[in-house]
Amino acid sequence: MTAAPLSRSVINRSIEEAKETFRRFGIALPPFAFWTAAEWAEKGEEMSEIRDCMLGWDVTDFGSGRFEQIGRTLFTLRNGTTRKPGYSKIYAEKLLFDPEIQRAPAHFHRAKMEDICCRAGGNILVQLTGTNPDNTPSDEPIYVKVDGVRTKVEARGIVRLRPGMSVCIPPRTIHQFWGEEGTGLTVSSEVSSVCDDWSDNFFLEPAERFPKLVEDAPRTHYLCHEYPAAK
Asked: Tell me, what DSSP letter sits at residue 49?
């Protein structure tokens, strides 16, 4: 059976659910989180950093056709980029809306180091595995910092993050994380070095970071890779 592509109606709904969940947990978003597609059409060069560094809403199913299981709804608050001159920021921050079970495909980053932080709601489960030089999963245990404490994790082991906790994931560490079943909706965040979603992700299985969409409804918000050019 052919997987169903991600639709604009699902994206619109997921953004609204994320906004409501952030609001419920007292997490405020910047003004540009609420700009509509019509408002963006009037924005000029002063918004170049938002466009060029891909700030804003990011909803994807990674080409899986199974958004409820393999997908993400997140909001990039700040980021740099090496793809265009003039951006010297060396860090990034994202907010993630975490329904129970939903996760990204297993992957690692070639360069990015990141902290995954459980901000509010339920628990986050983080599965971690080291890599061999040929990019395959390692069977050896790894050591990571959980709230600054050196912690041994067996291959494919899981770190449970309760609200307020975080884990630092070094480059070349395979990871998946998701809201623990039975603990409710969760908000997590990612604090990292600069995020380059075009070239720094290594997925263990075929995946599309920005898949093609079915336009079955009007766009309510632009995604971070869709912004129109400045007027």
From this structure: H
Distance between CA atoms of 218 and 65, rounded to whole angstroms?
20
Token readout for 142 is 């790894």
Predicted pLDDT at 2: 55
* Plot region of 209 (φ>0 → left; ψ -120 to 50 → alpha; else → beta): alpha
Pick the closest to residue 30 from 11, 55, 53, 48 (CA basis): 55
Angstrom distance (rounded) from CA 132 to CA 108 = 12
Structure token pair of residue 76? 């990039």
Looking at residue 1, what is its pLDDT? 44
Residue numbers of the chain with a pLDDT score lower than 50: 1
Domains by residue range for the chain, with CATH: 8-203 (2.60.120.10)
Helices (H), the chain: 8-24, 37-40, 48-52
State the Cα–Cα distance between residues 222 and 48, nearest whole angstrom.
Answer: 14
Angle 54-108-160 from CA coordinates, rounded to 5°: 100
3-state secondary structure of 33: helix
Q: Is 86 exposed, middle or buried (0-12, 13-18, 19+ CB in 10 A)?
A: exposed
pTM for this model (two decimals): 0.95
Task: Report yes or no: 185 and 122 within 8 Å, Cβ to Cβ.
Answer: yes
